[in-house]
Amino acid sequence: MTQGLPDITELRPEDLDALQDIEKRAYAVPWTRGNLKDSLAGDHIGLACRHEGRLAGYAFMMKVLDEMHLLNLTIDPDCQGRGWGRLLLEAVKARARALGCVRLLLEVRHGNQKAIRLYRNSGFSQIGLRRQYYPGPGGREDAIVMSSLL
Ligand SMILES: CC(C)(COP(=O)(O)OP(=O)(O)OC[C@H]1O[C@@H](n2cnc3c(N)ncnc32)[C@H](O)[C@@H]1OP(=O)(O)O)[C@@H](O)C(=O)NCCC(=O)NCCS
User: Fold this and answer.
1) Alpha-helical regions (H) of the chain
2) Which residue's alpha carbon is at the smallest distance from atom 24 of ligand 1?
3) Does residue 107 carry a catalytic annotation?
4) Catalytic residue from among 10, 23, 27, 119
5) 60-77, pLDDT tens digit by residue?
6) Which atom from ligand 1 is nearest to the alpha carbon of 107?
7) Which residue among 114, 117, 147 is best mutated to probe the pocket of ligand 1, counting the most ligand atoms within 8 A of its Cβ?
8) Which of 23, 97, 98, 133 could make a disulfide contact with 30, Cβ separation 3.0–4.6 Å?
């Protein structure tokens, strides 16, 4: 078990390779390098979870008026289950509050019980369902839309 808590800092353009590496290992249908590059280039707000100088996780979010949309929350599969996902989610909430947002919204795959459990335990509740929203290896999958007041 690795010692010490990670730091939450800003994502930087030079994180692109590490982002792509984690993204590929964490998802069956990962964001492309182009998606990640555009997000880093300023389309979205990016937070990094760094441990011992290495990228261990990240979050991308987008502010729309007084709502923050969480677009991507990922912890390196090698580092999952250590409480870092919860830590990063708390940092996302803090950043959203600091930017004047009153609500945090997200979509999650219907079958992603691990993430759904994290979100429910962090104050999110379901506000909608988008049918057949996500592509996947076994066909399309519904998205659960969740929201939390900040
Ligand atoms: C979802 C994810 C961000 C959680 O990060 P993590 O660091 O593994 O999670 P944590 O160790 O902080 O645990 C937080 C909560 O997640 C849930 N969780 C974590 N591991 C779990 C497991 N194996 N089974 C069920 N729930 C689990 C629990 O509710 C846990 O809280 P608890 O320990 O108090 O019960 C991470 O697993 C991940 O990146 N998964 C792949 C990408 C993904 O699905 N992202 C979300 C897209 S919407």
Assistant:
1) 16-26, 33-38, 84-98, 113-121
2) 114
3) yes
4) 119
5) 999 999 999 999 999 999
6) 48
7) 114
8) 23
pLDDT band at 42 (very low <50, low <70, confident <90, very high): confident
Q: Is 23 a catalytic residue?
A: no
pLDDT tens-place string over residues 136-150: 888 999 999 999 999
**pLDDT recorded at residue 138:** 84
Band of the pLDDT at 2, cuts 50, 70, 90? low
On whether the CB atoms of residues 100 and 94 are closer than 8 A, the answer is: no
What domains sit in the chain, N to C, each tagged with a CATH number? 7-149 (3.40.630.30)
Alpha carbons 126 and 134: distance in angstroms, whole number? 17
